[in-house]
Amino acid sequence: MTDIQSVLNSTYIKPVAKQTLEILYKAAGSNQSSDKTVKTNKSSSKDLGLEQTLQNLPLVVHGINLYARVLAGIDTSHSSSGSGLRTAEKSTAAQDSSMVGYTLELNPEVGSLDLLHLDITNEAVLRERLLRKVPIEIKHPPPPRVEPDKGSKVEVKLLDSSRERRVPATRLSRVFSFGSLGVGLGLGVMAEASRRAVGIRPSGSSGAKLEDSMVLTEANAERIVSTLCKVRGAALKLGQILSIQDNAILSPALAAIFDRVRESADFMPLWQLEKVMVGQLGTDWESKYSEFQTKPFAAASIGQVHFASLHDGTKVAVKVQYPGVAKSIDSDISNLMSLLSIVAILPQGLFIDNIAKHMKQELAEECDYKREAECGRRMKENLSVYPEYYVPKVYLDLSTDQVLTTEYITGLTIDRCVDLPAETRNYIAEAILKLVFRELFLHRYMQTDPNWANFLFNPETNKIGLLDFGATREFGVDFVNTYFKIIDAAARKDQESVLKWSREIGFLTGSESKAMNEAHVNSVMLLAVPFHNDAIFDFGKQTITQEIQELSGVMLKERLCPPPPEVYSLHRKLSGLFLLAGKLDAKFNCYNIWNDIRSRFKPFEKTMTS
Questions:
Q1: DSSP track, 309-369
Q2: Catalytic positions, written as ranges
């Protein structure tokens, strides 16, 4: 019971949850200590019987759930009539004629302690106190839809779970979204704690635990995924980044949550799209395209992508940034990290503050579409000598800070390549492995986003189309030169040199325990296993991930310093590469690839800008 109290003391709904838990705890205790009938005393929870407690619990939980739904902006007009609410209390603002020209928003003057003075089972009271009436900002009708040309065939990459949902554009609305998530997680914790306190286990899939934790229940997983997909921006991006960490870093339950985040994203409604396009390209923005499909064919953490045509017939992809995400990076990540810290679902030793700091800087760069346009131009120039790759053209005259227009290219995503012949799958994985090494060791310029959707294989041209250069970065001379020495030493099975150069680059301080040094060196040696022998390496059957997982406990416990900041993005890309090759069940000779890179690598010399 101590653990239950500890968790509840950290949730945002402590005033209500604590009272409920105390009732259940005392009732359960009195029931176990005596076979005598427990008398009910309405004035004191101390003597409340277990039977009556269980009868009242659904109403209490419903009331708190109703509060959370109102706070989250969810329509409650269809609540079950059997929940204890009177029918007369179920009128909504949408049915009120006085709301024409107005909308409801959360009242920032209401604090969490005000809950103690409200009847949380009365929806009318909740709506009156928690919401306030404000004029609608956008009073002009949305623009007419630009219907796509029937001849235009665009592959829609939105998931079935993706839906049109307004992006919280102000800092206040985004903070409330995280507050609602905190309330929701607290509700989940309270429900799980209540069940455990009275020995009740959920049946079926409802509330099924992802692991032995009161926090990581299936219901709470859905809350996390839903909120991150709603606010999008930095929070969703961080969730997607955490999703590619393997189980050596995150528990399987948490990894499963973030994996669902990686695969999900909603898109903004038409009126928000119109507002962004007008602000970026002017009121005549539609005239700049001969065709513009207003429903996106793809949506991600920072923006959504629309198919369009130029007046000369060129097919283009128009990426439109969600409103408010660029200005909310710091607060979004801080709020998310605070929430994850409160529910204590991230492992110790992860140096999460360093990850958050790096992500704030990286995401600020990704939100600058002018920078991304330049990155795409430079990457197209760097890779022009390699026939395996194709980088789409950028249209600078139709690109701004928040709108990016590029050539529309087609191809098969990695998920659709799994059924291709083995020879083709091997070619794709081998080309992407070469790409990573070429970017880092020959150009010092890498697109670090591991998202598989950034690769499109065109069977007709046998080229791999490369997309999304927002996460492109230039690596420093000293880092690249030393990192090459580490990988090359590991490929040559030289453990002493791996340890030496790992200290030089900043992975280790030199004061680590023997156990930490051995765990670090062994993990690097494992990553270089594909390059150890002149033979075909089978990525589909590799066990490198599992073997590194066995070392993770020591490294998280014994690590004295965070890794160099460059490796956060670099190792994301390398992790994604291993997962991609495994997904394709690829088999090819990595030894020859590394020998080719070794022969071409020349230590970089420092310049004024590097």
A1: E-TTS-EEEEEEEPTTTGGGHHHHHHHHHHHHHHTT-S-TTS-HHHHHHHHHHHHHHHT-H
A2: 449
* Domain span including residue 466: 410-610
Cβ 113 vs Cβ 121: under 8 Å: no
Does 380 reside within a domain?
no
* β-pairing verdict for 403-407 and 315-321: antiparallel
Q: Residue 100: inside a domain, yes or no?
A: yes
Confidence of residue 355 (pLDDT cuts 50, 70, 90): confident
Of these ranges, 153-162, 175-184, 452-461, the one predicted with the greatest mean pLDDT is 452-461
d(CA 144, CA 148): 12
Token digits of residue 384: 């022009």
CA–CA separation, 62 vs 83, rounded Å? 7
**Containing H/E element for 458?**
strand 455-458
Distance CA 205, CA 226 (A): 18
Q: In sequence order, what are the residues at sequence separation of 6 or more whose Cβ sits closer than 8 angstroms to the Cβ of residue 119?
A: 63, 125
Phi, psi of 134 (to 5 degrees): -135, 155
pLDDT in tens, 8-34: 444 444 444 554 555 445 544 544 444
With CA atoms as reference, report the closest residue to 30 among 14, 53, 61, 55: 53
* Distance of alpha carbon 585 from alpha carbon 419, whole angstroms: 10
DSSP code for 217: B
248 within domain boundaries: no
The string over 400-415, giving b where at least 16 C-beta atoms fall within 10 Å of a residue's C-beta and e elsewhere, is bebbbbbbbbebbebe
151 in a structural domain: no
Boundary residue ending a domain (223, 250, 265): 223
- Can you list the positions of beta strands (E) in 213-284? none
What's the domain count of the chain? 2
d(CA 482, CA 475): 12
pLDDT digits over 503-557, tens only? 999 999 999 999 999 999 999 999 999 999 999 999 999 888 778 778 878 888 8
Task: Select from 202, 223, 244 the last residue of a domain.
Answer: 223
Q: Is residue 187 within 8 Å of 65, Cβ to Cβ?
A: yes
Mean pLDDT over 170-175 rounds to: 50
Token code pair at residue 294: 């207003």
User: Predicted confidence band at 214 (pLDDT cuts at 50, 70, 90)?
Assistant: low
Share above pLDDT 70 across residues of the chain, in percent, rounded to a whole number: 53
Closest by CA position to 360, among listed 576, 577, 568, 570 = 568
Residue 219, C-beta contacts closer than 8 angstroms, at least 6 positions apart: 188, 191, 206, 207
Strand 463-466 versus strand 455-458 pairing type? antiparallel
Between 19-23, 126-130, 478-482, the lowest mean confidence (pLDDT) is in 19-23
Looking only at the bridges linking them, the beta strands covering 445-447 and 472-474 are antiparallel
Q: Provide the token pair at 146.
A: 């630009």
Q: With contact defined as beta carbons under 8 Å apart, do 19 and 186 qualify?
A: no
